User: Fold this.
Amino acid sequence: MISKKVLITGNEAIAEGAISAGCEFYAGYPITPQNELTAYMSKHMPQKKRIFIQAESELAAINMVFGASAAGVRAMTSSSSPGISLKQEGISYIAGAELPAMIVNIMRGGPGLGNIMPSQADYFQATRGGGHGDYHCFVLAPAYVQEAYDLMFLGFDLADKYRNPVIILGDGILGQMMEPIVVKQHATRHTPHVKKPWALTGCLGREPNIAKSFYMREGDLERFNLKLQKKYQVIKAKEQRYEGLFLDDARVIIVAYGTMSRIAKSVVINLRTKGERIGLIRPIGLWPFPRDIFRHIARNSRRRKFLVIEMSYGQMLEDVQLSVEGKLPVEFLGRSGGGVPTEKEIIKAIKSAKS
Amino acid sequence: MAKIKIDREKCKGCLLCISSCQKGSITVDQHLNKRGVKPVKLKDNALCLGCMMCAIICPDCCIEVYK
Amino acid sequence: MKKIFSRPKSLREVSTHYCPGCGHGIAHRLIAEVVDELGIRERVIGVAPVGCAVIAYDYWNFDCSEAAHGRALAVATAIKRVRPENIVFTYQGDGDLAAIGTGETIHAANRGENLTVIFINNAIYGMTGGQMAPTTLLGQKTATTLEGRQANLQGYPLKISEMLALLPAVKYVERVCLSSAQEIMKTKKAIRQAFLNQMQNKGFSLVEILSPCPTYWGISPTQSLNWIRDVMSKEFPIGRLK
Assistant:
């Protein structure tokens, strides 16, 4: 495996990571601030003899992902907030048919057409279903361009392993920023990572396969839902991911993910040099939420506080509150509609949390 | 020589075969099948040409044709 | 005596849920016959609609996928692009293909995807209780046009096949019907052509089949076939459009 260092935007790093991870099919529709991702795929996928389609809408794109995934290949789409709203029906079908899929959301300000500034206001949409029915998507939240690249490998692996859709939750800052990263050289044609006996390949030598989410016979849908729930229980137990900083002695623990966590981290490190007992939990997986670490801290500490900071009016906040089980105080700082909490605002919030 | 075999339990009683038979060889069977429907039956093998029109028009694949 | 007509292998030996005299049963069988005769059962992947034929995959004996309502052509586009050696077809009703799915239909056609599309036009929405379809005729009474379809309120019956025939990347469009055994044989020929075109990489091929819905037309199965012959095919002319 040869690796090299490149200077690359978040959007393009995600695209490059997907290709290296063996993405065989991509369908997307232009929408700011993720257009560079689609453009990168349009150039590089055909070069690697993979399929690229600029679909007629985000809705068509997610349904194409359904088809490609049902046919047994690693399939992906990307969009930004309003386009992700369009995909919700399709994502529900993908979860209901137990198909793997990769969906990238480079979040922008909302609701409605909003603006093209970064945001984290799609947390609920990503982690609470978004589409209809009792299902969950994996949600992974990179904070660095290197991590955005790396999480594509993990994301596709999780999707295939659990036969589940995976959402990469980024934002406009991450998508547009440029950082040097290490990339792995990839083969022109990837070899299948995981056997997919359920895939639609033509029924030669076996009974026909059906890709479906429809169960009309008495009791069948409930039984199927119980199967999904069992899968989610396993995932919740095994796939929690976070980064923790200075948790041993922190009196105030900031909780932030994605781009917001970078700003929070620099405040934490800065205040640490001044002797402040501040820590940081940076969830990397948002579903399943890394509740165990919160539970552990809440059940085993006193006189500590959490300060949740988001580019929203309090969405991950609720997961922190649920995980803490009311045992420790949870405070909040947030801005939305394209606003980004500043270092000054964070320091002010920490001060008031400490009092 | 020709004949048809009708699966009377699969028959839904749509009667399309009756109108498609040029010889008028098919008729309604007065005995209900398990669906609670009066299926169709061939009046007489001698009347069958083996033209397959009834089998072609049957939406439920109830008819096999022999010649 | 030899058996000269029986159930094709690609049609499972089960009773369908379709109403007596419904056209789906005939169309399903014709597709199964063509698949068997062309020897492609093990290569075929069908994409089912949302509508009465939502469980078409329970009746055929080859790989199938569901699709969200109207999205069959997006699903099929992707399957064919990643598995070009498979034969991929969609089976869609008038709502699936020409209402909610219009965008996917036009763009799959415009891209010239090498697909076979079987379009079942029965001028009504059967599964949901007989509401107006894009292809419902003027004056036709349905659950949502109780006084009959009126042009000034609901527009005209949509000639989606004529529209698609205008697209340069569309290679074959034919309208057929199920109004008699002879017409059914012609329908089978068109279906066969549409599958052959894909096997020969000729491009987007669509067969529109005028099909009976006795239940929501409110007439007997035999009267339904006559209505297709006498009324519906005057509005939707039978023949090759491209």
